[in-house]
Amino acid sequence: MKKKFIFILSFFFICLFFTYVIFTLIENRKKEHLDAEKKIIEVTYNTIIEAYKVYSNIIYFNKLNTKETKSILENVYTSSIEEQETIRKNLYEHLIDMYNNMEDYKLKQLHFHLKNNDSFLRFHRPTKYGDNLAEVRHTVAFVNEYQKPISGFEEGRIYNGYRFVYPLIYKDKYLGSVETSVSMESIMNDLRKELSSDLSFIIKKSVVDNTVFKEEKDNYISCSINEDFYHERSISENENETMGAILKEYFEKNPTQSKKNLHSGEIFNFYSFYENNYYITTYLPIKNVVSDQTVAYIIVLNKHNDLHDFIVQYFLFLAILIFLTLFVIYFVYRIDRTKTQLFKKEKVLKEVQKIAQLGYWEFDVVKKKLRWSDEVYHIFGFEPKEFEASYENFIKYTHPEDIEKVSKAYDDSIKNKTNYQVEHRIITKNGEIKYVEEECRHTFDEYGEVIQSLGTIHDLTSIKLYQLKIKKTKEQFESLVSHIPDMIYRCKIDDNFTMLYVNNAIETITGYKIDEIRFNRVVSFASIIHINDLTMVRKNINLMLKNNTLNIDLEYRIISKDGRIIWINDNIQLINDEHHSYFEGVISDITAQKVAYDKLYKFIDTQDNMVILTTGKNIEFANKKFFQFLGFKTIEEYKINHKCISDLFTEDEKFFNLSLVKENENWVNIIQTLSHRKRVVAIRGINGLTHAFSVTINKFEDAIYIVSFTDISDTMLENIKLEEKTLRDKLTNAYNREFFENNYERLIETFESEDMYFGLAMIDIDNFKNINDSFGHNVGDEILINLVSIIGKTSRNDDILIRWGGEEFIMILKISSENGLNIALENIRKTIEESKIDDLPVITCSFGGTLYKNNEPVNDTIKRADEALYVAKENGKNKVILK
Question: What are residue 110's DSSP bridge partners?
Fold first, then answer.
């Protein structure tokens, strides 16, 4: 098991290593793809920007930085406002045709600025001028300060884009600056065309909010993925749904890393697997040309399913590696297991040889070389290899009287080309004589010459000794059986009960000798069975065979050789072996016992009491008085529906009955533990009347008792009536305190055994003293009598009413809950309130109820009920209060 675990662990770690290598290769390939994607996008973007810069330079050098254009602006700083309007108008008219043609180069705007950074003329918004751009257009401020051209991305008051800003100098006089720009929409369209990709553009909210005119902010919408960015509406209005889903998933799964990447301001990208396709998403940073801070990103989404094919190939390769590893490790495991099994088998073989005392030898006839197993040495009393194995040494330790037999067996087997088996004796190293059995098989060449002999030698000494011991034991057993007084036999299952074996007791019991009855030589056993019992015996034997019953006891008569009738008990056992079925049994002479029983039965029949013989479970005998009282004719008729007389005991708490006997107990043993006064049972006779019997028990045999039932019905009835009188209140016939004291423990135990509560209520007649004072004590007594009658009719069968004293009563109720107690008492209270009897005054009662708590003194229960009664009295009477 340990080695198997090591192989499994090795396979696991090798697979883990291969998996790590493959996943590392996949990650490296992913990184290469991501880096290549970055390069392609950056180069494409820079190429497009350079192309736009060339277009812008052409316009600047050929149209803007010319004498005609700059001469218009020459006097702008010395002119009045009205004159500046004229200059603005002249400049507009001079360049409007060129501006309109700029769209051919996808350049978006043309904007002139004064050297103080004021906007002078926006060709895209001619009426919007005069605002100072120093704080929002740093490219304009840069050119006006350093009089050098600059190009790069910058957000404007109206549009964002890639700006190309140039200085204007005329006659060594600095006039201001001019700019052209290309919109991000145009750049994005060119990128989309060149890369065949899905694109999106986001710009920081802070840049837009601080720069763009308020009325122009409708050009932007908030980014749903990152709240710090805007989308430009014209670019992202028709954004690809796949891109949106991929970006959302990435930012949700990698919130920390995604924020870190965005704040880094560097280009970054990542792989995604979405709807069975691989994608690379690249964030290309757009930096402000002056601050060199990243203010926007172009997002590029490219499908790269070539990675999918690559991953599939690598996983296929991994699967092949794992399969090959499994094959190699399994192959190595099988080799190791085979070696282990061979080692174990060799070890087991040696142990088996040792246990069975069986060794083997091999003789190479050609090489004249004999080899013995270790156990052969042990059988001869030597340690393995203690001397050289040879035929001479073998003969040396063979018993002298058996050498010739062994040699002859070997020579004959070679001559006849057969195997041989021979039993002989050897003399061990320490002189002990052992019995061995030798077997040999020869191998012959094509010429019939023996070339090899392979044999075994088995130590039979213990077997031989055991056989001798068995033989001796058998002789002792047969001697013992022959002296047993009971007849032990084995017979065939046939009509004659043919005796196969019988001991000497057959002659003592029947008078016939063994040889006369064995194998039916003179008489058969069936022929000596009493003619009146033979049918019964055959019937029981047939039932035994039919039901495959293994053992039965029969009592029947046989006729002895001298004609005497002998009663026997035959304990018959059915024996089934592989080939035959037969009977074995023990026959005991019970004639003397039968005679004694007959005398006992006759004596019992003369008794005036009912007398039975019983085991407590089954009735064996009953006298005439038993049959007269119960109306049965025979014991067999009684046993049809009953087993013992205890089945007829009436279940009454005043008498002993089977409810006091547990399942595995014998009622005979239990009743004997009671005092003689309590050994009384009630049995209903054939006339329907129940009689009380005093029970007397005497042991007859080991498991049989003589039980006498003396009728004490008259005396018992008088005692019951007297006991009833002592437990009843003379006036109301309700139970009294003595009844309560004698029975409350039994009632509590009974209720608990039925999973019910012992409920107790104190009942008091309201204003009873006034009734006595007004109407007299005779009326008071009538009210008490009628109250008991009303409660008796209203209460349940299990409820018990006890007169506690004066007008106070205690009631015991078997209930399932406190709510059940309240319902029962409220029903009685209401009935009393609504009852009107003759001319007696109407009465009401107050009730205080409670439940008995486990193992508490009953006086505590009574006290709690009394306290509840007091509360009922104090709160207006005619109430039920529980506590």
Answer: 180
- Token couple for 150: 């600059």
Q: In terms of residue numbers, what domain contains 684? A: 594-718
How long, in residues, is the chain?
883
> What number is the average pLDDT over the span 568-579?
89
Residue labelled with tokens 């740093």 = 138
Is 878 found in the same domain as 732?
yes
Q: Is 807 considered catalytic here?
A: yes
Q: How many helices (H) and strands (E) does the chain have?
A: 27, 31
- Strand arrangement, sheet containing 680-684: 619-622, 610-614, 704-711, 690-701, 680-684
Banded pLDDT at 824 (limits 50, 70, 90):
very high
Indicate whether 316 belongs to any domain.
no
Look at residue 539 and tell me whether its pLDDT is greater than 90.
yes
Cα distance between residue 159 and residue 766, in whole Å: 103
**Rounded Cα distance, 604 and 624, in Å:** 9
Q: How many domains does the chain have?
A: 6
* Residue 370 and residue 384 share a domain: yes
Q: Which of 398, 364, 362 is nearest to 380 (CA)?
A: 398
314-353: pLDDT as tens digits: 788 888 888 888 888 888 878 877 777 777 766 665 666 6
Q: Does 705 share its domain with 807? A: no
The one-letter amino acid code at 656 reads F
Distance CA 767, CA 784 (A): 13
Q: What does the alpha-carbon distance between residue 623 and residue 617 come to, in Å, rounded to a whole number?
A: 18
**Residue 315 counted as domain residue:** no
Say which CATH number the domain at 639 has. Answer: 3.30.450.20
The H or E element containing residue 351 is: helix 305-356
Indicate which residue of 194, 807, 834, 856 is catalytic: 807
**Is residue 513 situated within a structural domain?**
yes
CB atoms within 10 A of CB 545: 13
Determine contact, residues 44/194, Cβ cutoff 8 Å.
Answer: yes
Cα 813 to Cα 5, 823, 850, distances in angstroms? 71, 12, 10
Enumerate long-range contacts of 57-66, CB under 8 Å, 24 or more apart: 57/164, 58/105, 59/98, 59/102, 59/105, 59/107, 59/180, 60/149, 60/164, 60/166, 60/178, 60/180, 63/95, 63/98, 64/95, 64/166, 64/168, 64/178, 65/166, 65/168
CA dist 357 and 9 (Å) reads 43
- Which DSSP state fits 852? P
Give the single-character DSSP code of 249.
Answer: H
Tell me, yes or no, whether 461 and 583 share the same domain.
no
**What distance in Å separates the CA atoms of residue 673 and residue 679, rounded to the nearest whole number?**
9
Residue 4 is assigned to a structural domain of this protein: no
Q: Which of 689, 718, 747 is the last residue of a domain?
A: 718
β-strand pairing of 845-851 with 880-882: parallel
**DSSP letters along 627-654, please?**
HHHHT-SSHHHHTTT-SSGGGGB---TT
Whole-number mean pLDDT of the chain? 87
**Residue matched to tokens 């529980």:** 882
Closest CA to 156 of 101, 207, 200, 194: 207
What is the C-alpha to C-alpha distance for residues 105 and 182, in angstroms, rounded to an integer?
A: 9
Give the model confidence (pLDDT) of 157-186 as tens digits: 777 889 999 999 999 999 999 999 998 888
Amino acid (1-letter code) at residue 480: L
Q: By CB neighbour count within 10 A (0-12 exposed, 13-18 middle, 19+ buried), where does 647 fall? A: exposed
The dihedral over CA atoms of 403, 406, 410, 416, expressed in degrees to the nearest 10, equals 120
- Residue 517 and residue 505 share a domain: yes
Tell me which residue of 261, 295, 283, 298 sits closest to 34, measured CA to CA.
Answer: 283
Please tell me what DSSP assigns to residue 212.
Answer: S
139 in the same domain as 213: no
**For 330, which DSSP code?**
H
3-state secondary structure of 36: helix
868: CB partners within 8 A, 6+ apart: 762, 847, 848, 849, 850, 881, 882, 883
pTM for this prediction = 0.42
